[in-house]
Amino acid sequence: MMQRLRAQTCAKLSRSHSVKCEAAGQADTVRIAFRGREVEVPRGSKLRTALLRAGLTPHSEGAMYINCRGIGSCGTCAVEIEGEVQPAVWTTAEQLRLNFPPHSAPGNQRLRLACQVACSGDLLRVTKYDKFWGEGSAALPDLPSAHPVAAVAEAPEAPAGAGGAATSRTAAGGVTPLGELEFILDRGARQAERRQQ
Ligand code: FES
User: The whole model's pTM is what?
Assistant: First the structure.
């Protein structure tokens, strides 16, 4: 039931973007390449939300449980992003958090907070570095083939389109220990959820 709700929410979010995107000649989805996987997410969705709903996580294993859920204060969703996101430069929250230990120059310069940026462009290549806050210098390896992202691709209840199959992976992937509360601070995700109700 929850899987279906999440899937419908993503589809709805995607539809609301599609009119604007068609006018702009853009696809209403953005591809994300992350740790050897590629997923399609609704254009304009927050990167943290998009990854979690796709069964992937911008957090390290421990930080998956202990993080600020998108307020921009914990710094554990730090990732390197190749491709276009909005805003293009650090937000105030990023300036504060990415300049605060354990993040520090010069390593912090390549990082963005996944909870503070919206997916844009066509393809985002997202790299997560090691250590609890992602402040390390070694990129995390590709996910094993047994990772739930692949396993749930055939989920029967998942509708076609952006975020559909990916959403079902969330529950199976166990990357959202708080369920929908994971997205409580993502206004866009909450609005989509309300429209769905
Ligand atoms: S989730 Fe805490 S800073 Fe992004």
Answer: 0.78
Which of 51, 64, 77 has the most ligand 1 atoms within 8 A of CB, as the residue to mutate?
77
Least confident piece of the model among 4-13, 31-40, 111-120, 124-133: 4-13
Which CATH number does 2-144+162-196 carry?
Answer: 3.10.20.30
Average of per-residue pLDDT across 29-48: 97
Rounded to 10 deg, the angle between the 2-23 and 164-173 helix axes is 140
Provide the terminal-to-terminal Cα distance of the chain, rounded to the nearest Å: 13
Name residues whose C-beta falls within 8 Å of residue 105's C-beta, 6 or more positions apart in sequence: 99
Question: 17 CA distance to ligand 1 centroid (A)?
Answer: 25
pLDDT in tens, 41-97: 999 999 999 999 999 999 998 999 999 999 999 999 999 999 999 999 999 999 999
* Residue ranges per structural domain of the chain: 2-144+162-196
